[in-house]
Amino acid sequence: MTEINEETLILQLQDEKTKRKAFTEIINLYKERLYWQIRKMVISHDDADDVLQNCFLKAWRNIDSFRGDSKLSTWLFRIAVNESITFINKQKQDLQLSVDSDDSFLADKLKADDYFDGDQIELLLQKAILSLPEKQRIVFNMRYFDEIKYEDMSEILQTSVGALKASYHIAAKKVEEYVLTNSV
Amino acid sequence: MNEFEEIKDFGTKKTGMKVPNHYFDDFTARMDSLIDQEENSTQNEINDEEKVKKISFKSTIVKVKPFLYLAAMYIALFICFKFFIKETDHSQVIVQNEQLVEEQYIIEDAMYASINDYDIIEYLYANAE
What we know:
Chain A is an all-alpha fold.
């Protein structure tokens, strides 16, 4: 089996003849990881599916502008995060909520989602995460669930490593407090 | 560990979230067809734009035509007007000249009218000496 590496993929993306095939390869490689990143942000499966499609479409439309200055995964994650934030903000607008308010309105979506079968602890944990401010929520999800390195996270979110560590620390404290306060 | 192996080895902590059966198996094909649609519509848009450009050139000419006719009409009117003004000036000069000739006769008539018999006798005496 031919080993795929990022450099080969980027070269294939820059050639019109191989571009389309290379992009299909990218979809295959990143669909699952990006899906879970988005799903933890938007909560419902249907919304995550929409956002993931938009994310890949946006990547395809802008693939010519990708010159390999950052890692392909970083570039895709950045698109996924931005698309998720845009989607959530639009939902907040529809519900006439302030853009600065937390995302706890998504807790109802989680309970109603057919594709959530978590137990009480998992539900409580998700509710605790949803009570966090947006940036802290993204950092907490990336670090706690996906175990993304701070250096990679720094490139994706364009924030310093120090600030991300502080953000995660504060978020973890808040989640812990929420769980302790609200557990039966 | 290869970067792409790392990608597959993630998210060991449970979230309680799940996906429909075969969701990820079908996703690539679904995404591929979406991109194909996007490509086709982009190509159609390019073709439409080219058509619109051709049509818009023709329609521009059609739109401009009445204005061109109007402009031509104004130019024709202007030329006619200019010609008329010149003709008028020329006739005025003739009239002025005729007036001058008439005025000279009037002065001569007036001069002759002011000479009486006494003036003629005085003139004859003066020239006889």
